[in-house]
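Throughout our pipeline, every protein is held as a single compact record rather than as scattered files. The record that follows is passed on verbatim for readers who wish to inspect the format.
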Amino acid sequence: MPLRLPDRLPAIELLKHENIFVMDDSRAHMQDIRPLKIVILNLMPLKITTETDLIRLLSNTPLQLEINFMKLKSHTPKNTPIEHMMMFYRSFEELRHHKFDGMIITGAPVEQLEYEDVLYWDEMKDIFAWARTHVTSTLYICWAAQAGLYYHYGIPKYPLPTKMFGIFPQRALAPQLPIFRGFDDVFQMPHSRHTELHRDDIMAHPELTLIAESEESGVSIVMARGGREFFITGHLEYAPNTLDKEYKRDKDVRNDVEMPRYYYVDDNPDNPPLVTWRAHANLLYSNWINYYVYQETPYNIDDII
């Protein structure tokens, strides 16, 4: 699909080498169609990497998407050049009067803190509330999934004895839903987290639907408001080498780091990763864009309520 991206975004050249069709704003303005407007609140430390990972998945539909990047006023990233943030990101205050067809809120490296102890929690609460009236459908990923469920529904998170780290098999509990169209009976999902959600807490809320889970990694995907909200506890967007980089980074500085499970060929970290989640990652994102954004959003974007 043609993705409409800001001019000179680093992901453009990276993805062109993967034969993914992207266009910058200059070319997109020449096409007389209304693109779907997607906003990404990127809370991950390596923002350029996350941008590329998400754009790669969003490219897998025939629709034109206009991608916007949101940043927090109450937090200054330490691992991304300030010039990149100034050029490609706009603050929530700048974007709050706009409406969007879809939104993605990423994970963040703050999951071991209580929500109220996160420095930007007040701003996150404003964004969660705003998304309900300004976005057709929102994907919450990893920490954002836990935080969104806590804010909207009071669902707590629980510390894990050891990190949930690796690629884990998942089962769709509602395979008839369009979000799972084309899925196999079992699909794989990367996880990298120190906390979890409990199934009983989800099931106690009739307004929430647990739609995918794993015997090993637990709650996987929760749906609310008929698909206007999806809460995904893992990282389908991860590139093949993301867990490898994380493992090798951490094991050199700590002695409690376990190897990611079901990840390396023959469970040997000297071997390359075995990629088992990419096809379903593309399916989930394309199904979300098609059935929960494009099919549901009004033509006049200002009519989103």
In short: DSSP finds ten helices and twelve strands in the chain. Confidence is low (pLDDT under 50) at residues 27-32. The first strand starts at residue 3 and ends at 5. The radius of gyration is 19 Å.
